[in-house]
Design goal:
Two copies of one chain form a homodimer. Chain A has 209 residues and is mainly α. Chain A has two domains: 49 residues, Homeodomain-like (Arc Repressor Mutant, subunit A); 144 residues, Tetracycline Repressor, domain 2. Helices cover 69% and strands 0% of the residues of chain A. The first copy, chain A, contains ten helices and no strands. Chain A binds a DNA duplex (30 and 30 nucleotides) through helix 1, helix 2 and helix 3.
Chain lengths: 209, 209
DNA sequence: CGATATCGGAGGCGACATCTCCGTTTCCGC
DNA sequence: GCGGAAACGGAGATGTCGCCTCCGATATCG
């Protein structure tokens, strides 16, 4: 913990660069990439952080916390369905803009970060779902853990958006939300995965077993 | 092209092993994996096939052709919505059982195989969509190219199914189909990607730009 | 049984990401 | 300013991994 000017400056540059690089290229980006983007040497990067995971943890901690906060904030919206839609759209927008973020949320990143953030998200979303169900605006057989699956489904939509049109994800989010809305439709054919298997839900989409 | 007993036997073993290995582990499986699974040496594998892509092409050619055939067959079903649902369920089931297949369809594999099969699929699905739209059972703003996106969205669901419960994908397919069905819902917020960008839709979900 | 096609799998090769080492540069207190 | 400690930079050592080749061993068949 130094106060030297160059040390502080480079630390700031590294974190800013990490934010941009992870957002654009995802968690596979190398620490060398980040160092180059920050305009510092790789040695400097490794002096500031023991490894790539440490940088990712710093950069992504508040991004994930933000998601949970958004879910809690959405409870302030009076209309239960509007609250749910607002939460999904805000969260999806954050993910569409940050590849590292949705990779983290959907299981490609640090398992510890997921284990920390998901229970928080699920708790907040459960409140949103309960309210929506009481109001009869969400299909009765939707469960809070489906949100983890929905985020996983949207990951390819975010990727498409990056390549084709920045807003394309809105189309497929709307499609999924319409499927989630209450109607006279037949019940979903299979129960959701048990909450205890949330980690498995998230790891899906990732390769290797 | 030999008729020696060991040659023919090993070729059969290799193709059978490739089918299993690609289905279970996806296109990232190595030809060495396939050889080991077939109980032959890697040298043998490389004598029968110039490289991994060649094996994949042999193994996946009929699987993808089957999808297109399924779409055409679905046109024989009288009810337009039932035809669409049947096609999706059949195709999704095939993909859920074969990781190599959905990786190929959604852009992780050989670009040539995709370029060959997708126009065929889109043509057949366009007929299904047109009929459904005329009958008013599908939302008017759904386009045939959305099917490529829907398959991409389902890929994570297939992955989950493999890890958690073999039928879990049915839940999320049902959700998406319910979103696709005609109702009094607001139109989708963004147009679908142009047909000309189909290759970009498919490449999404894959890493690196 | 011998000629020849085929087999098997160790290992060469190239690519790639992680992280270290040490000569050079910057900083800051005196 | 000046000197020494702190920090920098980036070449390259290291380890991993997948692709594919080579050649001595083995199987097939006339």
């Amino acid at each position: 913990m130094s106060t030297r000017k160059d040390y502080v400056r480079n630390r700031g540059r590294l974190i800013a660069a990490a934010r941009e690089v992870f957002a654009e290229r995802g968690l596979d980006a190398t620490l060398d990439d980040i160092a180059r983007h920050a305009g510092v040497g790789t040695g400097t990067a490794y002096r500031h952080f023991p490894n790539k995971q440490a940088v990712a943890a710093v950069v992504l901690a508040d991004a994930t916390a933000q998601i949970a906060a958004d879910a809690r904030t959405a409870l302030d919206i009076a209309d239960p369905w509007a609250a749910l839609v607002t939460f999904f759209e805000l969260t999806a927008a954050r993910q569409a803009a940050d590849r590292g973020l949705y990779e983290t949320l959907t299981g490609h990143g640090d398992a510890a970060e997921q284990a920390r953030i998901w229970p928080e998200i699920i708790t907040a979303v459960t409140a949103l779902f309960d309210r929506a169900r009481r109001a009869g605006v969400i299909r009765a057989d939707a469960e809070p853990q489906d949100i983890a699956a929905v985020f996983a489904l949207l990951a390819p939509a975010f990727e498409m958006s990056r390549r084709i049109a920045p807003d394309l994800w809105r189309r497929y989010l709307a499609l999924v939300l319409d499927g989630l809305r209450a109607t006279d439709r037949p019940p979903l054919p299979v129960p959701p995965p048990p909450l205890a298997d949330l980690d498995l839900v998230l790891k899906a989409g990732k390769g290797r077993g």
